């Protein structure tokens, strides 16, 4: 059994568990009360706040605990936007933010606000110059994650913060994926994080608002957490979160080096042992524990299922694993292949032999899924594609009603049937095709000519170059 | 050591603690994931939802878990109001709701909404006819607590629900104080509750929305908890909450009878052993564990402090114990004395000998505080009040700058100095005087003539009747 999905949730750190048990006994009372149980709870809450603030490198009175990282993001963005309402209602986010940021941006846009989404390059990183360019006189807030949750790419936060500072615009950093590894450098104004990502318990987020940043909490509030997070404080969880953060930080340097080596093995050896794989994300500027790759000609759901049967828990940004049947917005923004996508995110303590076993099992799993789907084993292999050559010499592949990865499999099967310079027209109505057909062209050195509306779904045009 | 403030927070039930520990091991993963840890978490979440729904007597798909009772109230009211936006934006609440309800009503009113606050009688209960009368064609929602958190009075929920149903208006019931004792009867439409009030952990609230009730969640949302409570599910806490609820329900009937007897002892014996005490709340229709009384001529803060030193943790609705220095809105709405207010709320398992010790200690504590404050020991006792008799024969007491309970003490000292039919004019700028001088008149059979603006603060006029 190997749990390789730490970027979704990490099990509670043993130190956090001990702290939780102690705080269940000592910290259950209302910290606003004057009697001894209340005073004891207040002491625990204050100590947890100080410990968390030290890890964030902020003042304790700048930090409040929220019921989740998601709530921290919602409250942080809404409060910062409202605090600068007089300046304007323009919000900047990157295209690869966590869904909690993007959902808040959508809600802002559905109101009277405007949103600019800053694009990323093929590694998933934003360009600080693009943020600088997006800043306007009416920009109320900019948001940028410290590192991406799906591909591990570390963002140039300090540079973007500098551009924002020059324009007098606060920057909110979603540090959910990185806070366990270290504080976020640079002159950010607001910061959010989520305890269950660093080995704390669920039920705890952090919202940090630097002194001097205009902030107006939205919605009904109460006197708890400086009026920024309503509801009875969850002190046992908060204490466990702070203790876990301190514990993972103590181990962070050594563990980062170890995990970086393990993910480097995956980055290097998967493309060598599995044909037709694209490893995505920045090879250098990345989180220690995350590595993500996509495999042509397989569907993510089946790969996940087979890996689960083999004892590996991983996640995927493939469309077939999402409830909306659309590929991950991160992979889409990067313009990389989404089919057969696998994210491996190693929790601290992952043993090398587990990674080695993964590297042994994966090629077999992918090969078996490909075989079942009838994927081409080599370019130009005899295919069973339903295709016709039109009057214009264009070869038409009808993949309507077929889900990812079938449209790409069909395309790959027939590309050898047209002469170099000839065109294949793929008819598909699966959302993933829009991302995966161009990505396949990029991987295979073929030319993607674009998409046209068709009677049903879309037609994707590909010119054979080699 | 006796913790008598269960209405604020109850320690975690041992069954809940066991469940929490088990679920920390089994339920930390993301229940939306397809691998085994995710499936295991999903099973725990589903089972907890079924158990909670059974206790509420609703369908599991009508119930979502929120990060707190406060969040359940905010989300429930906002969602119900938005769902019936076309009908209108009128909201009805009782004057004695929990602050989370009243804060949401204030936010609604600060927007474009209108709010009617239904008054209560001297026991803290609403009149169903008053709710029926408050209903308007543009009423979007009515809210009523199942029982009051400060005085324990049980509200006529079923009757109010019937009036609302007849008008086609949904009723939201805040069941925070009563759900541990049993399901809420009557045709309510929405229900909220808070786990740490029934012996569950902090970090869990319930929001129930009956099928067919129009509901539009507000603010940014995600796919969790039917889109009604954003953020990663806190499964260990949710599992512990459901297990605790089941456990306290199993003990509820026996424990209710036992605690009712203990609070009855306090209701009966405190007025007999402490002079000048008013026990507030309905003597019959009340929660088993709550009893509240107010003591003339003492300040709540000192009484709480002295009781804490004697080993009793209780709370108070007196102005001096609130951060805003205003008396509890509940006591104010009831029109009862707020000075020297003490709320005793017994957790399940409270032993009779602890209550007996409280009954022994309380008279001494109150007597000592009264002695320190120079309170009159009997009507007409020689006083040190600074007072003057004006030209009109009105006796003027200057209590400006003096905090509760001094204005009432000064009034009591001089009332014997004016003839029957004569008037005392008390000058005071402490907020509590507005409530406590009329309440004192009511208790002592004197006539309260009303309040007039004065150069500083207000003048309160009292006519001696006996």
TrEMBL record, chains A, B:
The keyword Hydrolase does not apply. The keyword Repeat does not apply. Transmembrane segments: none annotated. It catalyses: (sulfur carrier)-H + L-cysteine = (sulfur carrier)-SH + L-alanine. It comes from the Bacteria. Keywords: Aminotransferase, Transferase. Pfam families: Aminotran_5 (PF00266), TusA (PF01206). Residues 397-421 form the UPF0033 domain. Its cofactor is pyridoxal 5'-phosphate. InterPro entries: Aminotrans_V_dom, PyrdxlP-dep_Trfase, PyrdxlP-dep_Trfase_major, PyrdxlP-dep_Trfase_small, TusA-like, TusA-like_sf. GO terms for molecular function: transaminase activity. PANTHER family: CYSTEINE DESULFURASE, CYSTEINE DESULFURYLASE FAMILY MEMBER. Belongs to the class-V pyridoxal-phosphate-dependent aminotransferase family. NifS/IscS subfamily. This is Aminotransferase class V-fold PLP-dependent enzyme. The lineage of its organism: Bacteria, Bacillati, Actinomycetota, Actinomycetes, Kitasatosporales.
């Amino acid at each position: 059994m190997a749990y390789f999905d730490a970027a979704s949730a990490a099990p509670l750190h043993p130190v956090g568990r001990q702290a939780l048990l102690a705080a269940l006994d000592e910290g259950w009372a209302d910290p606003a009360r004057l009697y001894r149980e209340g005073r004891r709870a207040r002491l625990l809450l204050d100590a947890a706040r100080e410990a968390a603030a030290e890890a964030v490198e902020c003042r304790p009175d700048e930090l409040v605990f929220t019921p989740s990282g998601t709530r921290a993001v919602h409250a942080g963005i809404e409060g910062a936007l409202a605090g600068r309402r007089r300046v304007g209602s323009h919000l900047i986010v990157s295209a690869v933010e966590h869904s909690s940021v993007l959902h808040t941006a959508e809600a802002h846009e559905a109101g009277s606000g405007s949103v600019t989404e800053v694009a990323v390059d093929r590694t998933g990183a934003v360009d600080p110059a693009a943020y600088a360019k997006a800043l306007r006189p009416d920009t109320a807030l900019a948001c940028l994650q410290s590192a991406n949750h799906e591909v591990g790419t570390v963002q140039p936060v300090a540079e973007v913060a500098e551009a924002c500072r020059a324009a007098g615009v606060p920057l909110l950093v979603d540090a959910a994926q990185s806070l366990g590894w270290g504080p976020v450098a640079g002159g950010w104004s607001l910061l959010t994080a989520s305890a269950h990502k660093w080995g704390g318990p669920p039920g705890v987020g952090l919202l940090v608002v630097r002194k001097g940043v205009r902030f107006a909490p939205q919605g009904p509030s109460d006197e708890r957490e400086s009026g920024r997070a309503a509801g009875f404080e969850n002190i046992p969880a908060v204490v466990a979160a702070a203790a876990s953060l301190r514990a993972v930080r103590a181990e962070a340097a050594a563990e980062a080096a170890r995990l970086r080596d393990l993910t480097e093995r995956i980055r290097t050896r998967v493309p060598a042992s599995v044909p037709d794989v694209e490893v995505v994300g920045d090879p250098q500027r990345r989180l220690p524990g995350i590595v993500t790759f996509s495999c042509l000609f397989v569907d993510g759901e089946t790969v996940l299922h087979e890996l689960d049967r083999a004892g590996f828990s991983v996640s995927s940004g493939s469309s077939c694993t999402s409830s909306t049947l659309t590929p991950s917005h991160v992979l889409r923004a990067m313009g990389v292949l989404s089919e057969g996508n696998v994210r491996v995110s190693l929790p601290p303590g992952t043993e090398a032999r587990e990674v080695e076993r993964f590297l042994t099992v994966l090629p077999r799993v992918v090969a078996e899924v490909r075989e079942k789907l009838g994927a081409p084993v080599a370019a130009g292999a005899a295919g069973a594609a339903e295709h016709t050559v039109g009057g214009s010499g264009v070869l038409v592949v009808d993949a309507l009603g077929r889900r990812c990865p079938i449209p790409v499999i069909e395309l790959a099967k027939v590309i050898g049937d047209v002469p170099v310079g000839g065109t294949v027209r793929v008819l598909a109505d699966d959302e993933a095709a829009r991302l995966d057909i161009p990505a396949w062209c990029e991987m295979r050195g073929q030319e993607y000519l674009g998409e046209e509306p068709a009677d049903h779904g879309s037609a994707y045009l590909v010119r054979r170059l080699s």
